[in-house]
Amino acid sequence: MELFGVPIQTMYLYTLIIAGSLTLLFLFFGDVFSGLSEGIPFLNPTLVLSFFTCFSAGGYIGELVLPLSSLLIALLSCILSIMLVVLLHIFVLVPLSSAEESLAYREDDLRGRLGKVITAVPVDGFGEVVIEGIGGTISKSAVSFDNQQISYGTTVLVVDINNGVLSVTPHEPI
User: Fold this and answer.
1) What is residue 31's three-state secondary structure?
2) Is the distance from CB of 155 to CB of 174 less than 8 angstroms?
């Protein structure tokens, strides 16, 4: 079969090369076009480019391997591409969009958090406090803010941070 005087296999191959190249460009420079998909979520450029890439790859391979008509190969390729794009959307893009941007934290973010003493804090010395959160568990050196001993297992409140060392005080729940 020919389309615009060009064999359909060649059209599939050209589409594959162009869509694949645009997908790679969008992968590298996608932040520039980040606002394009906000209004209409199903027209996400990642999904559209993935559809054309899968469609043209499926059509090209189908034309080479399958002894079916070109129209049936295009239909099968379209159905396969829609299924792959839906799976990409559900299992990759939706979880990525709802994930936290980073698991990193700033030390200032620890101020006001509750932790638990895992190494007793002596009067004029260092102990260790563990702070649990959504992003994981953070273990930091600690000193007593009130210059008093804090025993193992005590729940503490982070008051200040100096040079990576937490200043903590025992926490009494209200």
Assistant:
1) helix
2) no
Task: Name 102's Cβ contacts closer than 8 Å, sequence gap at least 6.
Answer: none
CA distance 107 to 104: 10
d(CA 112, CA 79): 54
Q: Are strands 114-119 and 127-133 parallel, antiparallel or unpaired?
A: antiparallel
Instruction: Give the number of C-alpha atoms closer than 13 A to the C-alpha of residue 19, restricted to the C-beta side.
Output: 20
Report all structural domains of the chain as residue ranges with CATH numbers, in order of start: 2-98 (no CATH), 107-170 (2.40.50.140)
Q: Which helix (H) or strand (E) holds 40?
A: none
pTM: 0.55
Sign, Cα dihedral of 62, 66, 70, 71:
negative
Q: What is the pLDDT of residues 29-67, one digit of tens each?
A: 777 766 655 666 567 778 888 899 999 999 999 999 989
